[in-house]
Amino acid sequence: MSAYCELFNLTKIYPSPKGPAIIVKDFNLRLTEGEFVTLIGHSGCGKSTVLSMVAGLNGITDGGIILAGRELAGPGPDRGVVFQSPSLLPWLTAFENVMLGINQVFFTAPKHEREQIAEYYLSVVGLADAMHKRPAELSQGMRQRVGIARAFALKPKMLLLDEPFGMLDSLTRY
Ligand SMILES: Nc1ncnc2c1ncn2[C@@H]1O[C@H](COP(=O)(O)OP(=O)(O)OP(=O)(O)O)[C@@H](O)[C@H]1O
Ligand SMILES: [Mg+2]
User: Fold this and answer.
1) Ligand 1 near 172 CB (within 6 A)
2) Class in CATH terms, 79-173
3) How far apart are CA 95 and CA 91, in angstroms?
4) Considering only Cβ atoms within 10 Å of each terminal Cβ, which end of the chain, N or C, has fewer?
5) How far does the centroid of ligand 1 lie from the alpha carbon of residue 142, in Å?
6) Reported pTM
7) Rounded to the nearest whole angstrom, what is the distance from the C-alpha of residue 75 to the centroid of ligand 1?
8) Does the beta carbon of 43 lie inside 6 Å of ligand 1?
9) Ligand 2 centroid vs 48 CA: distance in angstroms?
10) Which one is the CATH code of 5-71: 3.30.700.20, 3.40.50.300, 3.40.50.2000, 3.40.50.720?
11) How many CB atoms lie within 10 A of CB 161?
12) Pocket lining: 41 vs ligand 1, CB cutoff 6 Å
């Protein structure tokens, strides 16, 4: 049976002053639908590099990635990403940050349905009372939760979470 997602011979070489640095070499991974996989390794071993290549945000030096029968080239709404440190648009509220992607992906849905999706996911991450605040008025952990809501709200085929709970306390993580 073919895998739902397959990383084959994934390789990343970054240029460096001392010459090309091989960060990831011939990394292979097969995932079935619904599978949850955690990459563990020391700081700097290349976890975020692999994740950003799957997200389509970082060029692939060699090898490739297939998702749902299609070879990936560039980013797309089929993959949701929660970054190690959240990047939100500072001039928009938490709600508006989450709505950005929803408006792009679910553009055929009526406005009130799109707003309900944003409200639902912001409530799930415990931000029901803070969703109309701007990033500067939120704590780091709250910003990270906006990032989590933003990724989950698009119902992507694949969720790529780069240490998404790093800034959350144990109760909020749960
Ligand atoms: N854009 C880049 N240009 C050059 N080198 C890079 C770049 N991004 C990452 N690296 C290097 O690649 C290596 C792997 O980095 P990466 O961020 O993938 O590590 P990581 O496993 O996610 O680490 P951490 O657990 O600290 O997040 C590091 O040595 C880093 O210096
Ligand atoms: Mg990392």
Assistant:
1) no
2) alpha beta
3) 12
4) N
5) 25
6) 0.88
7) 19
8) yes
9) 4
10) 3.40.50.300
11) 18
12) yes
Q: Is 14 in the pocket of ligand 1 (CB under 6 A)?
A: yes
Q: Is 170 in the pocket of ligand 1 (CB under 6 A)?
A: no
Matching CATH topology for 5-71 and 79-173? Answer: yes
Atom of ligand 1 nearest to the CA of 16: 4
Q: Please report where in the chains the tokens 């306390």 appear, as a residue.
A: 169
The alpha carbon of 78 is separated from its chain's Cα centroid by a whole number of angstroms, namely 10
Length of the chain: 174
Straight-line distance from the first to the last Cα atom of the chain, in angstroms, rounded to the nearest whole number: 35
Tokens representing 7 are 């990383």
Per-residue pLDDT tens over the stretch 74-104? 999 999 999 888 889 999 999 999 999 999 9
Residue with tokens 């989450």: 98
Burial class (CB in 10 A: 0-12, 13-18, 19+), 121: buried
> Which residues, other chains included, contact 19 with Cβ-Cβ below 8 Å and sequence gap of 6+?
none
The alpha carbon of 42 and the centre of ligand 2 are apart by a number of angstroms equal to 9
Report phi then psi at 22, rounded to 5. -85, 110
